């Protein structure tokens, strides 16, 4: 029983991290129209920036030269700043490209960045990664209860990210972003500069992904380049599509549904060769779910809804109705 | 012969030629479907995986390698036709983002099934060892490598002849340019589309077999290759089949030369650094150098 | 108000806009006529900054706007419309309006500015929508509107933006002939409130009826200008239109 509970806590925690990435991706790619296949770049940059700032100095068998043992808040700030700066740089270079080229170039940057994580051991300790990273408040509670505390932290983080993003989506900023997605030329005539506006969305999404990277380090207590391959990008896109591209609720729920589909089989105890088979079949199940959703519910489980504004009817509106009728 | 770093100019020439051949074979089909169907087919990478493992299985049954390769390639071709009819065609009207992610779904399914059947171990074709030929005292290619290069060139020429001179090829180009007009002229888009998918996926399957012969077979090969295929395709200008031919060569040699300066684990990183550089200077890819680039807007 | 002087733009040897100069007086309705391919829409794109002129200059309210960013030009108070009024398809009618509101214009640049739309902005938008018979459809996605409703929404958006100069590309196209006179009177009413107009239309009768001044274009050049009566009587314009109708008769 307690094993199952711990497993559930772990799944929901992972779901919260994915949901955070989904909310970020949905802002730029669902509300905005950017087909970004490089969201993992900022997830990884955030994670590594956090680790470099907060990890202890390297042991004799490790190769990295930094490790400042700074407090958690400094690591989080560093992660978000680093992710934002890289997003600014990459976005400024790539946002002038047309759709398909943008999509492939962002994927390209993600691949280059992953290879930097692999190769520059002085910075990242290479393929071996960095182990034994202490998540925050580790000593505050009994080790067996820490999973719950971490879950609470992650859910709180997700709630903040969701509320901030929701605010952006329904504010004039988000409306303009949608306008550029829907009709770029018309949006320009409303005084919107599409590239600059998209760049802001790209940087915000990158910053949120960087923060999600910090949470992912807390969750794993290790950081390795393999955790930041383009698989993550495709998984997050899959989750957002299942939830409903452009829909805030969809993004939020999509992350959890994805983890449910992808990781629930992990609880089934199998070993050796069978584990590899199960892992492969898990991927096939995700693929099938994606195909079926796109075929029969292309707008996702929670499609984007019309925004309704309140307000009193203007004088004369009634008259128009009767006139029209 | 001057030595540059640890690799000689001869090594660069040989390895560059072999990688260019395999890249070319992998990318032509991708480019064909991009041009005729208008979307990025991520499942193309998994067709390489499928071809390689299918050939390995057939080879294991006792078939000679050449027969296994041909049968695997044909099997991939039919899979391509089925994928198109069952998965892609029904969602074609829903836009390229839906098509793109349907192909991601298909890629996951193929990857998952092959992985479940074959396991995660690295495998290799059981080939009788052959020594590399010597040219002027320098080791040249092995007969296998030479055959791969030859077959890649023949296939590329074949695609060229097919597109330019045969009725089916002409109809492919006609449908890609304007489907309605092509229908009026008597080309059947449905049949044309079947041919494209068969040829494209069969070539990918063959490329997968070759990749397995030159190196080894592992379940990640499809994902690794789709990244390289995207690099080649972007470099060549999206959907330009002749641009792809040039880009394969440029990229393969660019990587071999670049690897003299950086660690070999930067292989794909180098490919992408190259295309990032090209795109930032020429946002339409290499194809725009000779002005054939069709500009699509957002 | 608007001063276009000696603007030139060619595409691969074809002179789409060839040494064009024109003026829009403040508080006037200026028309631009000409056959298909005369360069009218290209000139619109040059003025609104979507295309950059090869030569020449454009001044608006004593400011040089040549080769400025189109969104900057829009912010100065020039609003141009497009021939196909699709709007923002997956946004509601009300959102279509708000994107063009002063409220959004002032606050859109920061992701952290307040999200609530003030009541007076909503009321202003509602009043305009009611005026165009769209109030009941305010929460409907624009993609679900009929073609005439989309056309009305286009005018409603323009009213919401409150431009100084309104450039209308084919305003009468697709409008029910019975409603063209009401369209003309709306334009005149706005003119009386101080808005200037530059409009392109194929409907000669409509243009002559509504405009104070007309420029006629052919092959990228201005071939005639003056009051509607003067332009209609111009020999070159007559040739252009009679020649054209003769050609259409032959087909």
From TrEMBL, chain A:
Membrane topology: Multi-pass membrane protein
Pfam families: BPD_transp_2 (PF02653)
Molecular function (Gene Ontology), one example: branched-chain amino acid transmembrane transporter activity
Entry's Gene Ontology cellular component terms: plasma membrane
Transmembrane segments: 6-27, 34-53, 73-95, 116-133, 145-165, 201-219, 234-262, 274-294
Keyword line: Cell membrane, Membrane, Transmembrane, Transmembrane helix
Cross-referenced InterPro entries: ABC_transp_permease (IPR001851), LivM-like (IPR043428)
Residues of the signal peptide: none
Location of the protein in the cell: Cell membrane
Main location class: membrane
Protein name: Leucine/isoleucine/valine transporter permease subunit
UniProtKB/TrEMBL annotation, chain B:
Domain of life, source organism: Bacteria
Main localization (coarse): membrane
Membrane topology: Multi-pass membrane protein
Compartments where found: Cell membrane
Pfam families with a match to the protein in the record: BPD_transp_2
Keywords tagged on the record: Amino-acid transport, Cell inner membrane, Cell membrane, Membrane, Transmembrane, Transmembrane helix, Transport
GO biological process, one term: L-isoleucine import across plasma membrane
Classification via CDD domains: TM_PBP1_LivH_like
GO CC terms in record: plasma membrane
Coiled-coil intervals, chain numbering: none
GO-annotated molecular function: L-isoleucine transmembrane transporter activity; L-leucine transmembrane transporter activity; L-phenylalanine transmembrane transporter activity; L-valine transmembrane transporter activity
Membrane-spanning parts: 12-32, 64-83, 95-118, 146-168, 195-217, 223-253, 265-281
Entry's family note: Belongs to the binding-protein-dependent transport system permease family. LivHM subfamily.
Matches recorded under PANTHER family: BRANCHED-CHAIN AMINO ACID TRANSPORT SYSTEM PERMEASE PROTEIN LIVH (PTHR11795), HIGH-AFFINITY BRANCHED-CHAIN AMINO ACID TRANSPORT SYSTEM PERMEASE PROTEIN LIVH (PTHR11795:SF371)
Name the record gives this protein: High-affinity branched-chain amino acid transport system permease protein LivH
The encoding gene: livH_1
Automatic annotation (TrEMBL), chain C:
Pfam annotation, one family: ABC_tran
MF terms (GO), sorted A to Z: ATP binding; ATP hydrolysis activity
EC number per UniProt: 3.6.3.-
Entry annotated with the keyword Hydrolase: yes
UniProt key word Endoplasmic reticulum: no
Domain ABC transporter: 2-244
Keyword terms of this UniProt record: ATP-binding, Hydrolase, Nucleotide-binding, Transport
GO CC term (a single one): plasma membrane
SUPFAM superfamilies: P-loop containing nucleoside triphosphate hydrolases
Protein name as it appears in the record: Lipopolysaccharide export system ATP-binding protein LptB
Organism (species): Methylobrevis pamukkalensis
